[in-house]
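Example record

One chain of 558 residues, shown exactly as stored in the release files.
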Amino acid sequence: MMTLIIALIATFHSEAAVNYVKKLRGAKAIEVTYQSSYKGRVYPGTTIVSISGDQAKISAGDNGNRQHRDDTPVQNTYIDYATHQWYKVAQLPGGREISSVRGFGSDSTLRVIGREKVLGIDCAVARTSINSNTIDICYTDALPFLGTPQPGVGVPSGLVLKVTRNGESVQEAVDIKAFRPDGSLFPAQWGEQLSDPEYLYAINQSGVITVPVFDHARINFSGAAIPDALTDGEVYNVGGGTIVIRKVTLPDSAAIARRYIFAEVEQYSEGDAYDRTGSIFVIPTDKKQSFVDAIRNLKSVPAFVSDSTAYHGLVSTADYDAPLELMRFFTGFGVRAFNKNVVPGQDWVDSVLYKTEITDLAEHLSGEQWIGAYIGNWDGRGHILSLDLKYYPGGDDRKVTAMPLFNTVNYLEQAGQPYPIFMLNDSLQVEFTLDHPVENAMLSYTTTGHGGWGGGDEFNKKTNTIILDGREVITFIPWRDDCGTYRNNNPCSGNFSNGLSSSDLSRSNWCPGTVTNPEYIYLGNLAAGKHKLTVRIPQGKPAGSSNSYWCISGTLLY
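Predicted structure tokens for this chain:
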């Protein structure tokens, strides 16, 4: 019985081959439909290769009932076998048309390793390698046409019916039919011609929404105060000069659905030689008071009281939200301003780029928002900072609620805000209320320890303990051992006699010239009603007039 089945399958394939060859005998032009799959899973949509004479056009076929997004380019590829060139052509969102051209030679780089049948048609299997990927190309001369769905991997002298990458990713012909072309397959014009790298960059960036927030804003010790009246779109230096704020209009929530969101900061020193704490934040304004009120009058907003000291503006309440931190970063030692310092083997960067994903905070990244940037410093020339928010196509459509709970970064140090040193004899406590039960809640928790002498918390491992409703959730030690990786971001870092530099030293979860990522702490399912979250850290004792302290921020995600 098995022998009979195998014989019938072989007969079927043989007949299929004869049928396709006979069916297309005498055809002046053909269309080949390809289906793509990965590890056996078939992707929706198809690719069509139309072939007429020396011309081939590669375009999207049936899209599997998926609608084309307006924020993605429309692309076609063309192969000219007469001139041995192939073209990529795209219409970008907004109407700009671009193209690039690349030549192709003979198929001498392709090594035939065997034969295979596709649609019952006998094919040679040629192998090549691209960027450490093994590519197998099945092509046939049984049909008098030249074409391929992937000219970038090689253009053999035949009709390509199957391309396999690393034995897992497959694009294979599933149908071939004759058609009558209406003139040339090529467009009348190729649009703006770019190099291959320029074309790819334009394609990849075409759907990105970029919102410039700050453009070379100066953050320095200036005594600047917030004015009585604020104008949307204006950049204001406030809090003594170490904060810049701006009210911006971000894309609406519908426009940013199914997008990845990133904050991208570029920073360099104009005169400050030291590593400094930096932070990008949103100021929520949907409660009675906001951090804008704290900037105007620190003592007007709620305070966390510890050991008779009032720490205003650090903890959210029913009527006030603490600043929602988007990014914590640390400036390098004197980037650009001190690049004249010569250290053999080091090539200083001209500025530092900090980039981090903030998609989970999308709820606060649409419509009108106050956004701030902070670099703690006491230098009259200070630092220059640019900030873009970038919204990239892709991602899922899940909606995350982001509730800011606390933020102890002392943004208003120059306006009299005390250092957050209360962990020495106390812990941070914040209450929040849920109006309905939530599942799989998480705490986005950013923590960095400070105290820049040998016994300070900057250079000593300290546990961070998170307690929810009296239950210890986690205890861990935030620490960075990789600071030496970023030596080129620190031209003014001191070099020690033992061969190390100050910027090499491991620290409490931060390195000069880098971003500090948040920890995502699983809280589980939470009932409706009030909850109490506590953060406990065994802060070190002061040394003379120097104190250790911890900059921590927490956002509830669900």
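Notes: Helices lie at 2-23, 196-205, 291-296.
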